[in-house]
Design a protein that fits this description.
ABC transporter involved in vitamin B12 uptake, BtuC, single chain, 76% helix, mainly alpha
C-alpha cells in the first residue's frame, strides 16, 4: 500500500493538481475578487473552448499524432456560422452544417495522414493556415452579432440559476464521456496500444489507420462545436476567432501528463491542467498583468510538461539500475 501511495505521488498528474492549488492560493491572496461568484463564473467560462478541444486532442496525442489546426477550425466554424446566418439560414440547420464542416476539416487532415502517410505535424501546420484563410474568404473582416437571444443565452447564460456557466456544463458532461471511453472501453485501450507501438497494434488486429482517421474527424467536429460556443459566448462571429488558441490546447494536454510521444496519459490530468491554465490567466488578469506575461507562462509550462516527465522517467530508470 505504501508503494502504491508513493507511485501516485510520483505521477505527473499529482504535480498538476499541486500547481492548481498554488494558483488558486495565489489568486485568493492577491485579489479580493478572485473567490467571488462572478469571477469564478468568468474563470470557468473562459476555459471552455480550450477544454472542449483538449478532449479529442488528448485521444490524438495518446495515439502518437498531433493536430495544430484546431484553432483554425474553430475560426472557420465561427465564420461559417456567421455567413449562413447572414444568408438567412435557420439556426436549426446552421448548427449541424457547422459541425459537419468541422468534421470535414478533420477528415481532410486524417486522410492526408493515414492514406498518404504524411506526418501529422506538417499536415496540420499547413491546414492551420488553409482553414484560417478559408474563414476570411467566407466572412472577410466583418463581424456578425445579431444572433437569436435563446442561442446567445446558451453561450453566456448560467446553469439552473447557479454561477456555473452553461458552456462549462457542456464541457463537464463531455469530459465524463471522453474519460469513460478512454479509460473503461476497448477503444480507449486501443489508443494506448497504437501510441505505444503502432506496428504491434496493427499486427494484433487493430485497424490503426481507420482509428486514427476517426480521431481526426472527431477532433474537427469538437473544434467546430468550440467555435459555436465561442461565437455565442462572445456574441460575435469573426474569422479571427480563436487565433493562437492551439498553443493553449496543446499546453494543457501535455501539462496534464499526456506524453507527446504517445501511449501514456489520462483525461483527469488534462481537465486539471485546463483549470490550472484558466486559473493562472484569471489571477494574472485580476492583478493587471499583461497577456504577454501569460503567453510566457504558457510557453514555460509547455516546456515543463515536455521536459518534466522525461527527466522523471530517467530518474526512475537510474534508481532501478542502482544496486539494492
Amino acid at each position: 500500500m505504501a508503494r502504491d501511495l508513493r507511485g501516485r505521488l510520483a505521477r505527473w498528474e499529482t504535480l498538476t493538481v499541486f500547481l492548481l492549488a498554488v494558483a488558486i492560493l495565489y489568486g485568493s491572496l492577491s485579489s479580493s475578487e478572485f473567490l467571488t461568484g462572478s469571477n469564478l463564473n468568468s474563470l470557468l467560462a473562459n476555459v471552455v473552448e480550450v477544454g472542449l478541444i483538449a478532449l479529442p486532442l488528448t485521444y490524438v496525442i495518446i495515439a502518437a499524432e498531433i493536430d495544430l489546426s484546431v484553432a483554425s477550425v474553430l475560426g472557420l466554424s465561427a465564420a461559417l456560422l456567421g455567413s449562413l446566418w447572414n444568408h438567412n439560414w435557420p439556426m436549426e440547420l446552421i448548427l449541424p452544417a457547422v459541425l459537419v464542416a468541422g468534421a470535414a476539416c478533420g477528415l481532410l487532415n486524417g486522410l492526408l495522414v493515414t492514406r498518404l502517410g504524411l506526418p501529422s505535424l506538417a499536415v496540420t501546420i499547413g491546414t492551420l493556415a488553409l482553414f484560417r484563410g478559408l474563414a476570411f474568404v467566407i466572412l472577410g473582416d466583418q463581424a456578425v452579432t445579431d444572433f437569436p437571444q435563446d442561442y446567445a443565452n446558451l453561450g453566456f447564460g448560467n446553469f439552473a440559476g447557479t454561477e456555473i456557466p452553461n458552456p462549462f456544463v457542456l464541457f463537464a458532461v463531455l469530459a465524463v464521456i471522453f474519460g469513460f471511453v478512454l479509460h473503461r472501453t476497448a477503444f480507449g485501450r486501443s489508443l494506448y496500444a497504437i501510441g505505444a507501438n503502432e506496428e504491434a497494434a496493427f499486427y494484433s488486429g487493430l485497424r490503426v489507420k481507420r482509428i486514427k482517421l476517426g480521431l481526426f474527424v472527431l477532433t474537427g467536429a469538437v473544434s467546430a462545436l468550440a467555435g459555436i460556443v465561442w461565437t455565442f459566448r462572445f456574441g460575435s462571429a469573426r474569422a479571427d476567432n480563436g487565433t493562437g488558441l492551439e498553443l493553449s490546447v496543446v499546453a494543457v494536454v501535455l501539462l496534464g501528463g499526456v506524453s507527446i510521444f504517445g501511449g501514456r496519459g489520462n483525461l483527469l490530468g488534462v481537465v486539471c491542467a485546463v483549470l490550472l491554465l484558466g486559473t493562472i490567466h484569471n489571477a494574472l488578469t485580476l492583478n493587471d498583468v499583461s497577456d504577454d506575461v501569460f503567453t510566457i507562462v504558457t510557453g514555460s509550462l509547455l516546456l515543463l510538461s515536455v521536459l518534466g516527465p522525461s527527466l522523471a522517467e530517467r530518474v526512475r530508470e537510474a534508481r532501478g539500475r542502482a544496486p539494492g
